């Protein structure tokens, strides 16, 4: 073994055992080979640092962590308890099949379902909302406005106090409320970016209107099954079924959040899944283009919420947030905050880096940690 390779093992890897090195004298090693050795050693060293950082987070997170680099799972963790208020026993432990309410991480699935209908010429992003629901009073809102949060529609969550509490609140009931009570728009469509859950709840209703199927049935048949996602469900499917392995959401003080009538509104939230299934989605949707073609995936991960031709600081694609960065590469990501659940899913196309945090405990254990991981990977 050359002295150069021995030196690099000590310098970069410590006790870590690298792949067997090529037996080659130093004087016969080209500059290109030396650079390649340095690059690989540096990459392995960074991965070790990332693993150390994620191991620290794993000690305090209640949920799952998944880190993928170069199409390989480099770190994976699942732990904690489905309920922090119940007995801490084996039956209460979070496992690989424990379901988490994905909160707004769900929105990318709704957007993908819309894009699939666009791909099949079942609708156009230029279609108007009233093309599908003529009774709604918002006659200037287009589907593209809903996808990019530029519709100017009010946030339905702000009107919870006016909804019936003796029954679950559904997408159909939301349509009726918007039709009859007519909440005032906050802006003219296309002139302001304002993240609003109403947009994606209405997109789910449009999917049902076009396909004649329930939103869960359409998404399962056209997205989940092709992606191989066997542990992903909707709130409406699990709410009265005690056989599902479901976690409960918790606030920062550990208080368990009770069920809520708005959990039954779909499209903006209320998909339940696991880290393993989301990894399958990442592979099928972003990498292998099994759900929609590469052309439409590219559209989904590109900013579309331009205001007067300018992308605002909060860039948004279709169901995904975008951080535009010419130096480190664009980030495609989305968080999820809902009734005690707290998640972050990040994908970087340039090097297929994928980082996922799922938690049913809002103790801020992974706040800002995505940035730290990226800084390690992008360091010299």
What structural keywords apply?
380 residues, alpha+beta, Beta-lactamase, 2 domains, 7-stranded antiparallel beta sheet, 34% helix, globular
Derived from helix and strand composition plus strand pairing, the structural class reads alpha+beta
The dominant shape is globular
CATH class call of the largest domain: Alpha Beta
Radius of gyration, in Å, reads: 23 Å
Helix content: 25-40%
Give me the count of strands.
10
CATH topology of the largest domain: Beta-lactamase
- Tally the helices: what do you get? 11
| Mean pLDDT score | 91
Oligomer: single chain
Q: Could you tell me the strand content as a percent range?
A: 5-15%
Output the strand order for the largest sheet: 2-1-10-9-8-7-6
Structure description:
The chain is α+β, with helices and mostly antiparallel strands and 380 residues long. It has 2 domains: 3-45, no CATH class; 60-378, DD-peptidase/beta-lactamase superfamily (Beta-lactamase, 3-Layer(aba) Sandwich), CATH 3.40.710. The protein has helices at residues 3-13, 31-58, 107-119, 143-147, 171-180, 197-211, 215-227, 235-238, 275-287, 294-300, 369-378, and strands spanning 63-69, 72-79, 100-101, 233-234, 271-273, 315-316, 321-323, 331-338, 341-348, 353-359. It has a 7-stranded antiparallel sheet with strand order 2-1-10-9-8-7-6, sandwiched between helices. Strands 3-5-4 form a 3-stranded antiparallel sheet. Strand 6 (315-316) and strand 7 (321-323) form a beta hairpin. Helix 1 packs parallel to helix 2 and helix 3 packs across helix 7 (215-227). The protein is globular and about 80 Å long. The model is unreliable at 1-16 (pLDDT under 50).
